[in-house]
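2024-03-11 09:14:02 DEBUG pipeline.ingest accepted 1 chain
2024-03-11 09:14:02 DEBUG pipeline.ingest length=118
2024-03-11 09:14:03 DEBUG pipeline.predict start
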Amino acid sequence: MKTDKTGDQRWHRRRFFKFLDAEPAGIIEDGKFVAFDQQEPPLMIYGYESDSAYRDDHEYIDECIANGWVPGEWFSEACPEGEFGDQRGEKLIEITEDEFNEAQRRGWPPKAGEAFDN
């Protein structure tokens, strides 16, 4: 439970990214991965690196970054309001803030002809 909210993040919207989420969602059942439905078509996710306003989260976020993960807020057509989480850095494509804002204006679908290469 987060109890120590400082209200002063160490950074916010530091870098902007996109990535293609083509991995199926699922659960581990009896030691095996059981996939839910595969995304059809794959979902383009946009986001930005962000810190938590909770001091209790800072150590975890620093550990994520040290291990190649990017903490931030992530948006898509499936979750237009965004959600906080971590993404593996190697699957992210860095974009400009203007590209991020353009995707937001479109409602998060990829623009026509946008490459899905990660």
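2024-03-11 09:14:41 DEBUG pipeline.report The beta strands are 16-21, 26-29, 32-35, 43-49, 69-75, 83-88, 93-95.
2024-03-11 09:14:41 DEBUG pipeline.predict end
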